[in-house]
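Final report, closing paragraph on structural work. Over the funding period we assembled a curated collection of sequence-structure pairs, and we close with a single example.
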Amino acid sequence: MDVIETEIPAVKRIRPKRHGDARGWFSETFRADVLGEAGIACAFVQDNQSFSAPKGTIRGLHFQIPPQPQAKLIRVLAGAILDVAVDIRRDSPSFGRYVAVTLDAEGGEQLFIPHGFAHGFCTLTPDVMVAYKVDAYYSPAHDRAIVWNDPEIGIDWPVSDAEAILSDKDRRAPRLADLGPAF
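Its predicted structure, as stored:
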């Protein structure tokens, strides 16, 4: 598998190799040793999976604060998403900036999102299934969100405010400027 830096080097694209023949293909989707050599040394403890039926569903921007922050390794099992990681580390030179990557089941690429980043995605197709590993258990007491369309972050989402399908929690999330220190 190949590990590729993004515009924010802490966020990495992972391209597993696929070995195909007449039956289909085989791929190693996770290798702790290869990721460790690339600086991703997480002990993942929980796997999560989401299904979003309509195109234009937005989930996020979610994160957990210390002492229960979560790093995530995201991949798409069905359909396609625009996957977004926002740097919320106050002392970072890239604070408030984001990385956006299209992930789909056909290509199999993954995105690694370290501690100190908010994560969200928008479904680009109907019937999207996303799977992700995290390195800390879900903790409601540490769970936080930033509003998906914060104008100061300026994410170029593929849907308008009127078209976006959101949970009430995500619609009511605060802006980054109103969040206070998180990392």
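The chain has a mean pLDDT of 96. The first strand starts at residue 2 and ends at 5. We thank the funder for supporting this effort.
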